[in-house]
Design a protein that fits this description.
Elements (H helix, E strand, L loop, with lengths): L4 E5 L4 H10 L4 E8 L5 H15 L3 E5 L1 H17 L6 H20 L4 E3 L4 E6 L2 E6 L16 H4 L2 E2 L7 H10 L21 H8 L7 E4 L5 E5 L22 E6 L4 E5 L5 E12 L11 E4 L7 E7 L5 E10 L6 E6 L2 E8 L27
Parallel strand pairs: 1-2, 1-4, 2-3, 4-7, 8-11
Antiparallel strand pairs: 5-6, 6-17, 8-9, 10-11, 12-15, 12-17, 13-14, 13-16, 14-15, 16-17
Length: 370
């Protein structure tokens, strides 16, 4: 019986290397490397070539830099100048890594793709379900929450049932002794460059200063450009006071930062849009979920309520700090990823117990629910 052909997404790190080592005896494997916009691309490419040669597998270099520019970098920089904090990894995974990159592997004769992500996929009742990795400190299911059924059907995550230390130990058994202390960057295309500097080079016309104000319209000071700030930020405001000021909202219209105190950062209800359900259909119940509002968030108990086909509200049992528009709320039932949606910009209810609720809004700013 002919062995399945698996393309290994190789980055030069321990996880993708361990992935290749785990699968080399079970499948016919080949390495694939994405050339994107990495500032140290020559060094990284050489490292991957050296690793592939030591393992003894063929390596393909796939240049997706133009598509990455159009789909990811434009979204990344544009979001910051629109007062939104983007999540490029969520979009890149769906559109580039498990999109164009996977399609390239399949066109090259591979049956599926394997990556070093710490997550698990299981097929049940004809559906492919995504679960957290068993290592809670390395679980990457959050970043995979926008994958489709077609993509999940074609991927393997060999490290999903393992701890990070096992990946190091496996690589070291094969003579790879220089991985410890080397981790991939959260934003691969920044390199050593600061975010502010990177954005200024891409959009110098968007670096205009503006006002920092309270919710009730009181002028507090001047900001140095919307792209320099995110929700919950304390440093860089230059607002001396008895207690610290924090960024509560970023408003492109009027070029304003809204600032407030620590207690103003907490919300128990948010609106989400750009909804994606991994099973291609919404859940049947509203309760029994844990929701993560950013990758570093451990998750909180919440109720998920449909407003329209494209907008939902998430109501937390306990208020959550610094909910950030542009980030994704990922919905879990125990360890399974159910779906996700992009967190909407702030629109506060003004009555009852819902002043701390961020809600879906129409284009004119009117809440869809009251």
């Amino acid at each position: 019986m002919e062995r399945k052909r698996v393309g290994i997404a190789m980055s030069g790190g321990v996880d993708s290397t361990a992935c290749a080592l785990l699968l080399q005896d079970r499948y016919e494997i080949a390495g694939f490397f994405m050339h994107l916009a990495q500032p140290d691309i020559a060094r990284q490419k050489q490292r991957v070539q050296d690793i592939a040669a030591r393992i003894g597998i063929e390596l393909h270099i796939v240049d997706l830099s133009l598509q990455f520019e159009k789909k990811i970098l434009a979204y990344f920089s544009g979001s910051y100048f629109d007062g939104i904090t983007p999540n490029p990894c969520m979009l890149c995974n769906r559109e580039i890594k498990f999109g164009l990159f996977l399609e390239t592997m399949l066109a090259a004769g591979m049956d599926c793709m394997a990556t070093g992500h710490y997550a698990r996929v299981r097929e049940m009742d004809g559906l492919f379900r995504l679960y957290k990795g068993v290592d809670p400190d390395k679980d990457q299911s959050y970043f995979l929450a926008r994958l489709t059924q077609g993509q999940l059907a074609r991927v393997l995550f060999p490290l999903g049932d393992r701890k990070k230390e096992e990946a190091y130990a496996l690589a070291e058994r094969y003579g790879f002794s220089d991985f410890r202390g080397i981790e991939s960057q959260d934003i691969c295309f920044l390199g050593q460059e600061g975010l502010g500097s990177y954005l200024e080079k891409r959009r110098p016309e968007g670096t205009l200063p503006g006002s920092i104000m309270t919710r009730d319209g009181r002028l507090l000071g001047q900001h140095k450009g919307l792209y320099r700030y995110t929700i919950g930020q304390r440093r860089g405001l230059g607002l001396p006071d008895a207690t610290p000021w924090y960024v509560l909202a970023i408003q492109k219209e009027g070029n304003k930062i809204i600032a407030g105190k620590e207690e103003d950062l907490y919300h128990d209800c948010i609106g989400i849009t750009n909804i994606h359900w991994l099973a291609d259909r919404p859940p049947l119940q509203e309760t029994g979920y844990q929701v993560r509002i950013r990758y570093s968030h451990r998750g909180a108990e919440a109720t998920v309520t449909r407003i329209t086909d494209t907008q939902y509200t998430i109501t937390f049992r306990d208020k959550q700090r610094a909910v950030t528009p542009g980030q994704f709320a990922v919905i879990y039932r125990n360890d399974e990823v159910i779906g996700c949606g992009e967190i909407l910009a702030e629109s506060l209810k003004t009555a009852g117990d819902h002043r701390n609720c961020i809600l879906p809004v129409q284009k004119n700013g009117t809440p869809l629910v009251s």
